[in-house]
Amino acid sequence: MNPSHFTRPVWRRPAAMPFVDEPLAASERVDLAVIGGGFQGLSTALAAARRGLSVRVIEACAIGEGASGLNGGQVIPGLKQTPEWLIQHFGNARGEALIDFGTHAADAVFGLIENERLDVEYSRAGWIHAAHTATALAALEDKNRQWRERGADVVLLNGAEVALLTGAEGYLGGWLDRRAGTINPLAFAVELARVAAAAGARIATGQTVRKLRREGNAWQLETGAGGTISAGSVVVATNAYSDRLVPGLARSLVPLHSFQIATAPLSPALQERILPHGHAVSDSRRIVTYYRRSPDGRLVLGGRGRMAKPRSEKDWAHLQHAALRLFPMLEGVAIEHRWFGRVAMTLDHLPHIHEPEKGLLAVGGCQGRGVALMTAIGPRLVDYIVGGDPAVLPFPLTPIEPIPFHAFRQIGVGALVTWYRILDGMEG
């Protein structure tokens, strides 16, 4: 079966024409070139255009065909690390800056939707991190303490409360972060492109950049169509889809495939039992299972899949098994959508910002929080491009460090995913 069959998510596209695609000319000159039209690239383009910069966005596919339109649409604030960990590892000043950035990352998404009146379904009911072991629950208790000390709208849940809010079986407790929520990610990507174009950014889809070089005070981008773009600054917003354009960037990231399924629309009775209040959920398993309800009342559930592209519906069998383990009442409910996308992780589970040469910026590593983090980081990148002060960036500028034996590590990741799945199964 053609793998392209599995790139059609359940998410609705906005009905109106989002923007006018502006093909690349043989020669162009702009203040800022953005390579990649996902959340990060479009957020950067919108912020730059509104600061008066001339902007060209180059996207290899259609808007929404990459990770931005293929993810689960969970908008989670913060980083994977706790506030105390961030301060311990980065010091007070940088640690507090990271905490503040993460705290308000979800606000950037919901603020754009509301302020720009984007045609994007969303809910801000909150996110539950569900614990399936006593060790995981103890870690959530510590995280809850740290965030409550900072005044965050969070609360610890016992097992009965998690069961009531999710309808799922098998959790000992959990942690509810009311700052979080869900969106239609495909509609958000398409609508971001619309408002960025309306602000003046010119977007070209189905186009690639095959070479990037510095000449004097400008960057020269050679496109796949044979044209040239001269830009004062460049933001490479390709993340998990990075190639050899920036030396070492792709090899500094661990790409993973995120597989998802969506059921048929749930009956009214099942909607009363499964996520009745619209929460998003991720669990504490080594191979995380995450789920939510779609705007049209389906259960959408995702997790890590095989490292190669899928070949048949059997490649989603582990997710269907997880859905029935959590929600036995779904027995007999059809799975109507299956899809996958690529995500990028870093070894330290933090996003990285690189500036290998002056005027060339790249950000990589979302760690499962890409909707919020990549949307929020765009305006900060523009602040740095305009003002030149690295203090405005939420993360410190770091050199690109390719992972040793990167090709073998990908094979190892596939084996590790299989082993972790076995361990998770033994724990129930």
Automatic annotation (TrEMBL):
<dbReference type="GO" id="GO:0005737">
    <property type="term" value="C:cytoplasm"/>
</dbReference>
<dbReference type="GO" id="GO:0016491">
    <property type="term" value="F:oxidoreductase activity"/>
</dbReference>
<keyword id="KW-0560">Oxidoreductase</keyword>
<dbReference type="InterPro" id="IPR036188">
    <property type="entry name" value="FAD/NAD-bd_sf"/>
</dbReference>
<dbReference type="InterPro" id="IPR006076">
    <property type="entry name" value="FAD-dep_OxRdtase"/>
</dbReference>
<feature type="domain" description="FAD dependent oxidoreductase">
    <location>
        <begin position="31"/>
        <end position="381"/>
    </location>
</feature>
<protein>
    <submittedName>
        <fullName>FAD-binding oxidoreductase</fullName>
    </submittedName>
</protein>
<dbReference type="Pfam" id="PF01266">
    <property type="entry name" value="DAO"/>
</dbReference>
